[in-house]
Structures are given as structure tokens and as C-alpha cells.
């Protein structure tokens, strides 16, 4: 149970109210969002996500490069907004499949399967 | 030429946040349909708040020009409106569609009376304009929207939205079973296709995407008769009769967890397979965008 004590402010007391935090309270450490590549060339491989934007593709301009002919040069973009990652199709040839459904874009959730051509990722939400 | 559909709220009846609904989402009804130049909004449930946040991240210099359609004014379809950020900007134009009586416009303003909300409708800075359907058809930007009646306590509207030769139908809060010629048929012959009235089938005909109220399972429905919502298997039968390509089950029951929605989708897919229909079925999920102008 949290305990909190507030001083009465009057002419004789300092103009600061004292607040006591619950014992052992501390902000939780951040844990990275992760894409685990489970199928396709180069798998298995784990990608910890830290950038606000990340292009996935076969081309040299991609941040996360996939050596697969089924993947377009710039296939998809990961975008972090309010600490949630979304994936968006960049007019790729083979599209993005989220848990088997072709989507143009999606906010990712823990356990989602994301497929780009023959490459399959499992997304794990961090915090 | 793009035709995009984004789900901002897919929950029925009441917002249901929490870990049980994290994947599909807990916000009430709100769907965005967008072309390269026009933004349509269907229903103003709590998902509308997040749509507003998104629209304000990169607003066009000339201001937002938005078109709002309401299926009906029950709470879970209007509750997000007072929290819709663009409505507070003088650069926004928001056209609210309804009948010539402007009842939707009046109901939106009514929920912002001082007893319910601290900001009055008249104090919203946006230019909010009522516009009436003419013979159930209206042009909104580069979309054509057709309205049709649905079976729901107090009435509700479904919408067929066309753009660039593609069609999306938004049909929530519709108790399809009450439209069946033989309402006992699902009990007597559960595997037989449930025949729906021709005008409804025609309204949905050949849609690339049908977004439909599928709140209940067959097992749940008998205790919910008259509540105004569909069971998933009857929605599947409507989609099959209308030759729909993709079916998004929405208006998820507030008691349904993500796993329950998964199970409802699997059952619906089984039903489509039983009658040999080629129909892709999925559960509408917050944050997902589909593109309809591509095969």
C-alpha cells in the first residue's frame, strides 16, 4: 500500500510539500521491440529495433537487408510512433502479409507473424 | 487512385481496453476510408479520437477537409466526437451527412450539452456543415456513397462506398437474423444457407470488402435476439450470396477476448468452406490498413 504524507504549508514551513513514493518504486527498464526472422534467406536471425524509421528490403539502401528475390529493393518501412511500431508497404511487388492477411499497413502487436515474400518474422513487443 | 481502409475502432457497445483485447483493440466503431485526395470517416466511436491524433500529426497547410457518416447515433458510434482534435481547429471543414432533417448533426451537438461535456458544440472552431443524402446517394470528394436501411432498434444505415471501380460496404449494427424469411431456419437446418432479402444482397453485391457487424456466435445469439446485432455465420451467408471478395467481422462483443475473436473468425471460415465459397474472412483489428485498389 502506498503511503503519502503531505506537509501543511503555512508561513513557518518551507514551501515544498513532501511526497513519499511506494517502497521499491522505480521506472521499468526499457526492453527493445524485436523482429525474429524465422524463415527465408539468412534465418534464423534476431533484429532488435531501436530506430524510429527502418526500411526493409533487398537493395543497398535498406536498413534491414534481406537477400531474397521475393523481397523488393525497398519493400516495407517500420515506423515508431508513441513507442509502437507500424509496418507499411512501400509499393512492393509481393506485399506484406500480417498473420496471413495482406495489409497495406498495420500497428504491430506481440506475436504477430509478418511475411515479406519468402521471409517470415515474428514480432515481439518490448516496453 | 489509392483506396485505403483503416480500422480505428472495432469494438461494439462499449470501449473495452485491457490485455484481453489488446490485439484486436478496445475502441468503439470508427473506420477511415481514404483516397489520395479525400478522407471519409464512418462512425465516431472512441476510435475517432486516435484518428484525430493521427490526422493532426501532418495536417495539410490548407486545412483538413473531412466527411463524416454515422450509421446511427447510439453511444458507441458518437462517443469519440467531443475528443476529435480536428473539430477544434478553425482550418478544418467537417461535413456531416444524414437525412434532410439533419438529425445526425443535431445528435452530435446534443451530446455536447453542458450536462455531459464541458465544451459546447457551438464553441468548436471547425466549420461543421450538415449535408443530406439525395435519394440515398451522395458524392463525397472522389467517392460515391450509397446509403441503405438496416434492422436495428431505432434504425441504422449501412453504406456502400465506391471509388475507382472498387467497392467497400460498411454495415454495422444490423440484426440480419430478423430479416430472414424463416427465422427458425438456423435452428432447424443450421447448415443450410440463410437467405437474406434481395435489396440487402444487392446493396452488398460484389463488394471488394464487406465490413460487417458480427458481434455474436450462433451459440450466443438466442439470448441476444432483438438487441440489433448479427451473428457471424449469418454475415458469412450474406457475403456469400452477394459475391463479396473479403469479409471483415467487426463490432466485436465487449465480452470477447482476442482469443474469442480468433475463434469466431475460424468458425466463420468453416462455414464459408462448408458451402464451397471463395471468401477471405478476418477479424477487423485496430491499426490495420487495407488497400482495395490492388489485386
Notes on the structure:
Chain A is mainly beta. Chain A is 0% helix and 39% strand. Chain A contains no helices and 11 strands. In chain A, the strands form 2 sheets. Chain A has a 6-stranded antiparallel sheet with strand order 2-1-11-10-7-8, with no helix packed on it. A 5-stranded mixed sheet of chain A has the order 4-3-5-6-9, with no helix packed on it. In chain A, β10 and β11 form a beta hairpin. Chain A is elongated and about 65 Å long. The N terminus of chain A is likely disordered. Chain B is α/β, with parallel strands linked by helices and 295 residues long. A 7-stranded mixed sheet of chain B has the order 6-5-4-3-2-1-14. Chain B has one domain: Metallo-beta-lactamase, Chain A (4-Layer Sandwich), CATH 3.60.15.10. In chain B, α4 packs across α5 and α5 packs across α6. The model of chain B has no long low-confidence stretch (mean pLDDT 95). In chain B, β8 and β9 form a beta hairpin. Chain B is globular, with a radius of gyration of 18 Å. At the A-B interface, β6, β8 and β9 of A face β14 of B. β9 of chain A pairs antiparallel with β14 of chain B.
Fill in the keyword field for this structure:
A: 127 residues; six-stranded antiparallel sheet; 11 strands; disordered N terminus; B: 295 residues; alpha/beta; Metallo-beta-lactamase, Chain A; seven-stranded mixed sheet; 6 helices; 14 strands; 26% strand
